[in-house]
Automatic annotation (TrEMBL):
Pfam families in alphabetical order: DLH (PF01738)
Gene Ontology molecular-function annotations: hydrolase activity
Naturally occurring in which organism (per UniProt): Edaphosphingomonas laterariae
The keyword Hydrolase is annotated on this UniProt entry: yes
Superkingdom, taxonomy of origin: Bacteria
Stretches that traverse the bilayer: none
Domain annotation Dienelactone hydrolase: ranges: 17-235
UniProt keyword list: Hydrolase
Name of the protein in its database record: Dienelactone hydrolase
Cross-referenced InterPro entries: AB_hydrolase_fold, Dienelactn_hydro, FrsA_esterase
Amino acid sequence: MTIQTRPLIYDAPGGTFEGVIAWDDAATGPRPGVLVSHNWMGQDDFDTGKAIALAELGYVGFAIDLYGQGRRATNTDEAMALAGELGSDRAVLQARINRTLELLRGLPEVDAGRTAAIGFCLGGKCVLDLARSGADVDGVVSFHGVFDAPPFANKPISAKVLVLHGFEDPLATPDQTVALGRELTDAGADWQIHMYGNTSHAFTAPGANNPDFGLLYDAKADRRSWQAMRNFLDELWG
């Protein structure tokens, strides 16, 4: 196994963006590709690490950028502003993440007929929006995501959906999680929601330690959710 990474600079609605591709250079032939959608801080080493972890599992990981090249938050105020900007026009958000799916399919290492997307926090919302857009993607996985639907009608969802969520998450409450399940049912999706007890938002982020705001890393939920994702991808592609 020889894991390699390379930056990918690309155009998408709103400007120029920069993500990171990870793949096993020792593998031969095209393999499934998986988008990694970032949290509200923007694409960083956490997302690149997840892309590398996916490459170690035999996939091609693409840590995408939805803010724009060089636009990354350094504190919560900047993150709130960038996330608010992205979320203010859900049609643009969906167009940007669909553009990354198009790029993923065009990579020489990727089997264009086998694609998925995972996302963390804000990124969970973004991969759900990818599914809501009717994109031809096999599956999406939301880790402690945000569930508010776009202010326009969604298309039927052909992607399988896995939601991995903390029961104590203040950014997406149990009632909102139930509402998401109803939305996914109405859209015809094949969906699963796994709830982790005594678990808050950002449970996969080792540095998260702000219980007053509901942000808290949880090693058990982190491990369990990653295994659930692995099982989900195995089911998609065997």
